[in-house]
Amino acid sequence: MVEPLVKVADVVKVYPDGTVALRGVSLDIFPNEILGLLGENGAGKTTLMKIVSGLLQPTEGKLYVYGKPVKFSMPAQALKMGIGMVHQNIPLVHNFTGLENILLGYKGIKRDEALERLRDLMSKTGLKVRLDVPVEDLSLGERQRIEILKMLFRGVKILIMDEPTTNLTPVETKDLFRLLKQLAYEGKAVVFISHKIKEVMEITDRVVVLRKGKVVGRLKTKETTPKELASLMVGREVVFSYPPKKEVPNQKDLLVVKDLWVTDDLGRQAVRGISFTLKSGEILGVAGVEGNGQKELVEALTGLRVIDKGKVILMGEEVTGADPGTLSFRGLVHIPEDRKNVGLVLTMSVLENVFLGLHRYPEFLKPGKLINWNKVTEHARKLIKRFEIVVRSLKSPAKSLSGGNQQKLIVARELSKKPSVIIAANPTRGLDVASTQFVRNLLINLRNQGIGILLISSDLDEVLDLSDRVAVMYEGKFTSLKPVKDYTLQEIGLLMGGVNA
Predict the structure, then answer these.
(1) Contacts of 441 (CB under 8 A, 6+ apart)
(2) If we measure between CA atoms, which residue out of 47, 48, 38 comes closest to residue 8?
(3) CA distances (Å), origin 412, targets 244, 386, 402, 438
(4) Is the dihedral angle over the CA atoms 457, 314, 446, 344 positive or is it negative?
(5) Of 19, 115, 177, 462, whose CA is between 20 and 30 Å from 128?
(6) DSSP 8-state secondary structure symbol assigned to residue 339
(7) Which domains does the chain have, with CATH numbers?
(8) What percentage of the chain exceeds 70 in pLDDT?
């Protein structure tokens, strides 16, 4: 019988604030295998893998590596034993370049040798990234690719991947899957954490499902179905369907962008002459690999970045260069992709985060422009109930929420401003299957009510499922813009990779 490389035995994790994340979890990770780990946000799957990779210590229980009991007090100890984790929230040194981050703590190799090995890795995996640029100037997708390369460069034996395909094209995803299967074939173990059940079904050998800190399912992938996995994750049957898209009469031009040019943080043209019109009752999707100007486009349209040239017209009035507060009052809201650094103030309470951006709205103020906290509290409770946000208390800091619930808090707050135009950047990133379904259904319902939605997403399935029209963005330009029904999957994949189909 094959012995597991890693054995987790009856692990319990209780955080200092009393939150019980794991309730006696046991798990085996075998060589020559890709293990899928599924669960809702807050189910404990990331906490479990942080314990395995040495980032956290269990409250109770034991961890065995290669048959021997171990107690990791830091990730470096786990990495030394061949365990590496690629985190969803990438822990890189932001003012270091990609190369410097990869080589940080790695001894006994020259720069030229490292570059040669990394170029070979990038060629094999399709994970192209700029290694000579400070990480703080890279998109989230590029940062994720650096972290994947970092672990592969170190030759780990147990590779833990937390949502690794979020920012990859279909071709790059296939290349990565091919690599992961090869690693498993060579005797390594891969733990694949993903909210994309289709991917889990495609690549894994076994699936373990967590719910509320407990294991609720251990299945061989070939013996289960997407419907069964989704039901195990949420504790009830999940129906994979979207509301029908209704024809919206008398569509109006809500957002008109003319010849937009925007510079990135390195002084390069990130957005190059983009023009488009977003209509009422429409979802206009923007597909593309992150790092092709999507971030700068969103920041320019939401008042977070200076526009070099061009015009932005909102509801018939020019708003080029307007600040975020002005745009919000005029009906444009922003669901940012980076919830921790842009969307929330993590040290502030849930109640205070709900109120961000609403502090100038008259309905929440008393005479003399004092905050009416009773109305704010009532508003927050309504949003938490409507959007099914799991939170212990309105006084809890936002950082105490799971990543998915943080994202839902942002969505709830921005949509409560009753917008006419929504700019949504990866609105379901990090959400579990039920929460993803909830947000996507919500966007379609808002579209049916006449709201215009610009959806920028690295999840191609999301773009294709929700959009009425799709623009493909490559190297700062829209290389194609047409109704979603006029694309084939092969065509859009080639366009995302810079190849004219």
Answers:
(1) 242, 243
(2) 48
(3) 22, 8, 15, 12
(4) positive
(5) 462
(6) I
(7) 6-234 (3.40.50.300), 245-331+420-501 (3.40.50.300), 348-418 (no CATH)
(8) 96
